[in-house]
Structure formats: structure tokens, C-alpha cells
Amino acid sequence: MITFSTEFPLDPKNTTADVLHLACEWLAGSPHSSLPDEDLESLPVDDVREVRVGHETAVLGSVSADGQEIAGLQYRRMEGELEWVTSIVARKDATETLFSLQVSCEALGTAVRLPVPKKPYFIKQALSALGGGSDGEIPVGDKPLFLSDGDMHIAAALIKGEAKNRLPIVYLSVDFRGQVAVDPAVLAKFIAGLAHVVVEPSRAFSAALRQLVDGRNVYGGALGVYWPYSSARKSYYLDRFSQDARAMQRAISDDLRVALANRRLSSGCTWSHLQEQISRRRIDRLRSTGSASVDDYITAFDAEIKAKDQRLGDADAEIRRLNADLRRMSASAGSSSAGLLKLGTEHDLWPNEVRDLVVAVLHDAVRNLKDGSRRQHVVQDLLEANPEGTEAASMAADVKAALRTYRSMDAKVRGALASLGFTIAEDGKHYKAIFRGDSRYMFTLPKTSSDHRAGKNVVSDITSTLF
Asked: How confident is the model at residue 158, as a pLDDT?
């Protein structure tokens, strides 16, 4: 079972030998390996070489063919009733040096549980020692990409899966205060080699971007994962992790790892493709030297057939995965911009606001529909499938708690309003409270008031307008 898989470009100045040397250094320095260091120093040329000690085996291979180089290391190790296989492969052509790493773990006993997978240390080692290349328009590394106001079309291409990147995008939107939910630098280091971290500059950018991507962008502080050449998206909200940024970060990393482990690598940067190219080179050498040894030919052909079978198996698994994705996306088509309702130009002021508002309106409307009518049946069916949200009621209760005894704008009231998304500005004898940066929703509060009903009146005005 593949537990970890990733693929991304390295700095093109690196050769496949550079990657293979580093892989051998990693293996020689691993506390889990007892393979002799000196046996890993010599790299094969257009061939494979095997090093075996006890329950450990390392196979090194390299070949030049069809205007490209490909080299790699596969390391097998038995650990109790678990077999671990790590495959590190690099492919270089005229335009890039591509790197892939896969880890699989198989249990030899039915009662053995597989351990929780972790990101291999070699990812950090490769980025540090060799440097990342350009993945489409984005540099591969452990630092976030901060967009500027002029990068609207870059963001749109990333979100729509049209930017020619291989790694997925973790897109950080800003909330009404211009803040993001997690530290981008920390997240970028945590998922380096798995995905790019991209940060938008402002709420205004988010609102304008929505028109370019048919509402597919996350907003209001949410995080979204977007996949290249795909319309798939998954959103993450900090409040669903009890405001624990580390918990959300771990969830994103786990989801990325699982998704990447189920995605097929490029056919030219896999261990099976390396084996196939080496076998083909062996056959060419036998022919060129006029060898008549049947055993040599059989060995070379068997290795090539085995490599092709592996690639066919990988392709079949990819087809099954894509079919499953297609069924899932077809079943959830109602949540997309081409689903039941097409999004307009209004932007959610909090997560799922528009959706919850429509559901609330349907709840009000169904009471006035004729019993037994088609309209009643359809609306009731929609309401059963879409439970009413609780965020608006919760925010209305918070507004009431903050303002029902309002007398003046003290620090407690100001802080409560700020936490709800209001910005407070002075205007003569009054304060103006603007909700989440939208000037259409501006409310007036007196600086001081002796009227005990003033707070209740403001609460009524805010809740009837917003919630």
C-alpha cells in the first residue's frame, strides 16, 4: 500500500546523479539502515546495482535514453511483519529536473496494523541541498507565495487548475480584518514538497477574484486546497477546529498526503519506468555485441515485461481513482456554480451565509404553500436535504449580549463588536459601526446615552438588517 507519494521539479542545474548521490547519503546516514557506506558510493551507469545485507536491500539504477537521463534508488527493509519500500527517482531532460518519492508499507500478517504515515525527511533534505525548481509559475520550496493586487489572473489560473503546476495549491483567504487563519510561513514549511501555500492580499482582491472563477475561491479567512487540471476543491475553516491552527494544519497535511498517495506519478519519473529503460538498454547492448545467449535475452525481456506490467497496474489504479472522483463530483454537482443555483455577485460575509439565508427563506416560504402541491413537495425535500444553519442565530445572540445594556462605547463593547467583524469609527456625537467592511451595513450608536432602550433599538436594527 502506498502511504506517501509526491513529485515536483528540482533546480534544473541538478543532474540525476546529484539526486542519486544525495539519496545514497540519506540512506547511509539513516539510523534504520545497516548497509555499508562504501557499498553506496559507486553509482551504476546505464545499469543497476544491488546491495543486500540481512533484511535490507538497496537497488541503484541509472540510464540515459531518448535525450533524457533517469536515475533512482529503491530501498526495501523488513521491520517485524512490515515491509517498507522507498523509491526515489529523478528524470532530467532539456527543460527540467523532475523528482519523485514514493513510500509503501505492506503488512505480512493479517493482525498487523500499519503505522501512521509521516512525510519522509528526505523531502526536506532534497529541498535544502538541491533546491526547488519552477512548478508552472510557482517556485518549489518551503516559503509561501504572497500575491499582490496585480496577480488576479495568476490566482484565477491556480484556482481553476489551469496554471500548469504539478503540486496542489493551499490558498489562504483573508478575513474582514485582513488576517489569515494560520501562519503562512509555518504552514509552508510543514507541507513543503506536498503543496504550495498561496496568500491573497486583501478582501477586495477576494471579491474581484470571485467573478473570474465563478465563485470557486474560498474567502473570509477560509483555506482552500485546489488541484491542478481539476475542478476539485476542499475548504477548511478555523472555527471547525476549535480555533486550533495546528489542528487544521495537521488535517490539511493528512488530506494532502492521502490524496497524493492515490495519484499516479508522471510515467517518466517512476521506478518501473527506470527499470524498463535499463532493460531496453540491456537488450540493445546484447544486439549490438551479437550475443547469442538465450538466458541473457530472457532475463532482459523478463525485466522489461515486469516493468511494463507495473506501469499498466499503476494506470489501472489511476483509472479507478478517476472514475471514483467523477462519481463523487457528479453526486455533489449541486454545490458547484453550475449546480442548482448559479451564484450572483453577492459575497458571503461569513462562511455559508448565502446558502443559510436561502434555506431560511425557504423555511419561511413553505408555510404559505398549498398542502399537497408540487411546490410544497420540492421545497420540503430541499429543506430536508439542507439543514438550517446556526451561524446567523449565534451572531445575533452575540450582538444582543454586547449591546442590550449599551450606554457608551467602552473597551468591552468595542472588543465584542470587533470580534463580530464590526469596525468602529467616530462621527461627531455618534459612532459608526460597519459590518465586515461593507459600507451598506453601517449602524449608528450614540457616544453616550441615558435612554435604556438605546441598546435594544440598535440590536433590533442590526439583527433585522443582517440576520
From this structure: 95
CA distance 2 to 268: 18
> Computed from CA positions of residues 237, 238, 239, 242, in that sequence, does the dihedral angle turn out positive or negative?
positive
Query: Could you say which of 224, 241, 261 is where a domain stops?
Result: 261
* Predicted pLDDT at 291: 60
| Nearest Cα residue to 35 out of 18, 55, 21, 19 | 55
Residue 318 counted as domain residue: no
pLDDT tens, 24-66?
Answer: 999 999 988 999 988 898 889 888 999 999 999 999 999 998 7
The answer to whether residues 141 and 214 belong to one domain is: yes
What is the DSSP track for 133-154?
Answer: -EETTEE-SSS-EE--TT-HHH
Best CA proximity match to 259, nearest among 310, 325, 311: 325
Residue 45 located in a structural domain: yes
**Residues of the chain above pLDDT 90, percent:** 47
Instruction: For residue range 347-382, list pLDDT tens digits in order.
Output: 778 877 888 899 999 999 999 999 999 999 999 999
Task: State mean pLDDT over 438-461.
Answer: 85
Q: Could you give the CA distance from residue 146 to residue 138 in angstroms, rounded to a whole number?
A: 11
**DSSP secondary structure of 331-350:** HTGGGSTTSSS---S---SS
Structural domain harbouring 88:
1-132
β partners of residue 90: 71, 99
pLDDT score recorded for residue 189: 96
Alpha carbons 353 and 316: distance in angstroms, whole number: 41
The distance from CA 165 to its chain's CA centroid, rounded to whole angstroms, is 13
| Whether residues 237 and 254 fall in one domain | yes
The average confidence (pLDDT) of the chain is 85
Beta carbons of 65 and 82 less than 8 angstroms apart: no
> Of 227, 261, 295, which one is at a domain's C-terminal end?
261
